[in-house]
Amino acid sequence: MAANKRKRKIVTPKTAPYFFIAPAVLFFLVFTLWPVIQSLLLSFQTSTGGQSEFAGFDNYIRLFNDGLFYTALFNTFTILIIQVPIMLSIAVVLAVLMNSALLKMRGFFRVAFFMPAITALVAYAIVFMIMLDENFGLVNYALSLVGIDPVAWLNDPFWAKVSLIIAITWRWTGYNMVIFLAGLQNISNDLYEAASIDGAGKIRQFFSITLPQLKPIFLFTAVLSTIGTLQLFDEPFILTDGGPNNSTLTISLYLYLNGFRYFDFNYASAIAYVLVIIIALFSYVQMKVVGDDDD
Amino acid sequence: MKIWKMTLTGALSIGLLAACGGGNDDADTNEGGGNNADGNAENSEAEASEVSGEITVWGWNVAAASMELAVEQFQEEYPDVDVVVEDIGREDLYDRLTVGLASGGSGLPDVTMIETDRLDNYFAEFPDGFVNLSEYGFDEYEGEFPEAKAEAMKDADGNFLAAPWDIGPAGVFYHVPHFEEAGVDPDSIETWDDYIEAGEQIQEATGAQMAPIDISSDDALFRMMMNQLGTYYFDEDGNIDIDSDEAQQALAKIQEMREADLIANVDGWDGTVTATINHQVATVPFGVWYAGTIMDQAPEQEGEWDVFKLPAFDGDGNRDANLGGSDLSVLSHTENPDAAYAFVEYFTTDVDAQMVALEEYGLFPSLTAAYDEPFFEEEDEFFNNSPIWSTFAEVAEGTLPANYTSDYARALRYSADAQAEALLSGGEVQDALGEAAGRIENETGRERAN
Prior knowledge:
Chain B: Keywords: Signal. Chain B: Residues 28-48 are annotated as: Disordered. By secondary structure, chain A is mainly α. Chain A folds into 2 domains: 2-42, no CATH class; 60-290, MetI-like (MetI-like fold, Orthogonal Bundle). Chain A contains 14 helices and 2 strands, in the order H-H-E-E-H-H-H-H-H-H-H-H-H-H-H-H. The model of chain A has no long low-confidence stretch (mean pLDDT 88). By secondary structure, chain B is an alpha/beta fold.
C-alpha cells in the first residue's frame, strides 16, 4: 500500500528539480528558442504587401552584395579593434590601483568607476551628445580654453568614430575593472613576497606576475567585450544615427534600420544570422588563441 | 559548451525580430478585419447616439494634448463614446505600431496618429492593417483639404486609409534685429540668390550665419526646395527621381550656402533650437510648427521674430512648399470601428477642434475651411505684429503634391547621406545624388527616372 502511494506521486525528490526549472525552460522555449527558429525561417523569405514567400538564399546573396553591409562590418571591426584593447588596458591598470593598500577611500573609487555601467543608457548618451555638441558643447569649450579649434565630434566621419569609442570606453571600463579586481584577489600574496625577496620591483611584478595570472580573466573580458562591441547599437543609434554618411553605421544598427525603418524583417533576420555566425567564429578563435592551455 | 552559450547570447538579439515578422502569415487570416466595414458603411450616417464604446487613441506630445482637448466637445455629439488619448513618444509609437501590425494587431489602439510621409510605408507593408475610411464615407470631405494633402492619404486604389490632420507649410523664420542691424529688407529677398546675398551682408554686420542644418542626418531644407521645384525623392509614377536636375539644383544651392559659410552645422533637434534662440543663425527655413517651438523656448524674444515665404529659384518661381504634417488612421483590428471612425471624422473635419489645436499648440490644420476663421487675419504679437498665419495658409493652398512612396524611409536616409557627402566631404552634388539613387535602385528594384 505504502509502496503504491509512493509510485503514484508525481513530485519526488528525483523529479522535483525538473518542476523547479520548468517555468524557466518554458519561457526559454516560447520567448527565445521559438523566435530564434522563426527568424531563421524569416531570413529565407521575402515579403511584399504583407505576403511572404520562400526565397531561398536571396536575402543572403543580397547581403553579400550590399555595399552598406560591408561599410557596417568595417565600422564595427574598426571600433572593435581599437576600443577593446584600450578599454581592457585601462581597466586592468585601474584594477591594480584599486587593489593597492596605499589607496584611501577605495570603496568610493570603486563605486565611482563602476557607476557608468549601471547608468541609464539614454541618459548617458544624451549627456554625451550635449557635451560633444560642436557649437555649444563643454568639450569644445574646454578645448577652446587651450587654444584648440572646435572639433565636429559627431559630424565628422573620423571624429564620430572617436566619439563612439570614447563613449563606450567610458561606459564599460569600470565594469571590466571590477572583473579584474575579482581576479586580482585570487592571486596569492606569496608570489609577490617571493618576487620582492628576489628583488623584483613593482613594475616588474606587474608584468611578470599580475598579467600572466590574470590571463583567464583577460580571456573572459575580451570575449564579453568583443560580443558587446559586435552588437553595438545604442551609442550609434542615439549619438550619431549611423552618420555622417554611414561612418558610424554598425551591423546591429543596420539590422534595426532594415527591420524597423524599412520594414524589411526578412533581410534584417538574414543580417542577424550573419552577425550570430560572426560572433560565434570570433569567440571560438579567441578561446583557441588565448585559452589554449586553459580548458 | 561555451561556444554554444555565446551563440545563444547572440541569437537572443534576433528574437525580437522574429516576434515582429512572424505574424505576417497570420495577418492574412485577419483580412476580414479591414473589410468588414461594408456592412457598417451605411451606418455611418446613423444617429450619433447609437455609437458607443471606448476607444484608445495614440499620439505624441502637443498632438496628443490637442486631441485630449477635443474629447469633451466630441462627447457632446457622441455621449456614449469614451475616448482615451495616450501620449506615447514619437519613436516609441512607431516601434510599437510596427511590431503590433506585424504581429497581426496585438497591443494596438483603435486610432493612431501617423506622419504623412510615413503613411505609404505602412500602407504598403501592412495593407490589411488600416480601416478603409472611404467605406465610411470619408470621400465626401476630399474637397475640404488641399489636394496635395488629400492625395497622400490614399492607397494605390484611391481609398482613404487616413484622415488628413495638420500640415507644415514652410516659410523662413527670421530674427528682425539682425536684419535691421545689417540693413537688409526681408521683402527684397525673392530668390535664393537674394537670400545668399542677404546672408553675406548679415554675417558681415552681425557675425550670425543664415540657416541651421543637421547636415549628417536631416535634409529638411533640401526636401522643401525639391517640393518647391515640383519634385521629390520619387516622381509621380514612383520612379527614383532624387538625382533629377531640379534636385541637383536644390542641393547645389545648399552647397553654395555652405561654401559661403552661411550654414551652421548643428547636432539634431536640440542643436537646431539652441542655434535659433542663441542667434547663431539669423533665419530658420522650416515648417509652420517651428513657430510654436520658438514661442515656447524663447518667450523673452517676443516681437523679434517674423516670417517670409521661402525664396524662389528664379524671379517668379514657386515659393510654396510643405514640411511635415500628420494624420489619423483607424486600425483594422479595432473592436469598435464606428466609434473610432466617428472620432477621426469629428476631429479632422470640425473647424473648432482644429482651431483649438492651432491656437493652443500651433498645429496647422489642413482643413481649408478653417482658414476663413478670424484668427488667420490676426496680427501675431510674438511675430512682429505680422499676419503670419495667413501667409502660411496661402503657402498651404499653393503647395505641390509630393509622392512619398513606400520606400520613403530609405530615400530619406540616403538623401541625408548625399547631403553629408556634398556638404561635409566636398563631394560633387551630381555624384552624391547619383549614389543615393543607385542605392535606392539596388535595394528596392524601382526604376530610375534619370
